[in-house]
Amino acid sequence: MSGVMKRMGMIFRAKANKALDRAEDPRETLDYSYQKQLELLQKVRRGVADVATSRKRLELQLNQLQNQSAKLEEQGRKALALGREDLAREALSRRAALQQQAADLEVQHQTLQGEEEKLTLAAQRLQAKVDAFRTRKETIKATYTAAQAQTRIGEAFSGISEEMGDVGMAIQRAEDKTAQMQARAGAIDELLASGALDDPTGMAKDDITAELERISGGADVEIELQRMKAELAGGSGGQQAIEGGRPNPAEQPRTETTKFDKR
Amino acid sequence: MIVRIMGEGQLELADSHLSGLNRLDDELLTEMEGGDEEGFRRTLAALLDAVRSLGTPLPDDSLEPSELILPAPDATLDDVRRMLTDDGLIPGTV
């Protein structure tokens, strides 16, 4: 079974946590709490002032009663001197009533004085508590601010390292992509060369085409050679003059050339 | 364990005192639930006296969370009942 003090403790903690959670900045909560304490202190002080005012009012009333009492005594004395005992009796009986009132007021005065002392003491104790709270509050606020700054610095550092990480990742990605493209290019070259892949540019040739071209290319050379020989046969002396002095031994077995030289 | 008496401050109590205090505390709850104002006042005074005599007051500048909280000596049965209802100690924070 949960008793009163446990339940109050639980409720208080739950409430305090909710109140604190809702506050964006715990420093504001502390300041708010301090403000409330100051208001409470102000109320207590006002209470002390009210009691002191009442006490002073009672003191004034007591003084008035004592003055009236003294006056009545004087009047009684005069009445007696004048042989008016009846008047003297009246004055003394009124004085007795006033003295009774004064005694009552005196009791009230003492009670108020006691209250005032207690309240003054309570105000002083509360003042001490509020002062202590203010000191503690400022310490907590400073600690919180420092912790917040530390967190910010930490966040900044982690932010920097994250950015650096991003750069590293980008470089890595670029490298990977390059290597991949190189590998792909190499593979394409091989595939194109083997004819397994058609070159969309039309530049690559399959092996049969290549062989046909090689053969026809050789035939072209032969045709061109014949054409040049025919030109030379119908030819000019300039060509002979140039080559006449320095016969090429490699060409000696060629009969046609030898015929030119002998002419 | 730290016990707060509302309006008075906090006291530190050895756990060994807890069972004795719990008996009074449970009695207080029963009286509160039964609406026994006179019994409530008597038990509350006894409980507060026990806590005051067994506990050591904490310095004013310490800010410790209280594990147990007791009503102020002048709290009435209705006051405590109100504090324990849904609206709790700090109104409007639910």
From TrEMBL, chain A:
Q: Which domain of life does this protein belong to?
A: Bacteria
Identify the keywords attached in UniProt to this record, alphabetized. Coiled coil
Q: Name one Pfam family in it.
A: PspA_IM30
Compositional bias, Basic and acidic residues, is annotated for 253-263
Tell me if Transport is a UniProt keyword of this record.
no
Q: Where is this region: Disordered?
A: 229-263
- By its UniProt entry, which InterPro entries does this protein fall under? PspA_VIPP1 (IPR007157)
Is-annotated flag, keyword Coiled coil? yes
Positions the record marks as coiled coil are: 48-143
Family the UniProt entry places it in: Belongs to the PspA/Vipp/IM30 family.
Q: What protein name does the entry list?
A: PspA/IM30 family protein
Task: Supply the source organism for this entry.
Answer: Streptomyces pactum
UniProtKB/TrEMBL annotation, chain B:
Which parts of the sequence belong to the PspA-associated domain?
A: 1-92
This protein is called: PspA-associated domain-containing protein
Classification of source organism: Bacteria, Bacillati, Actinomycetota, Actinomycetes, Kitasatosporales
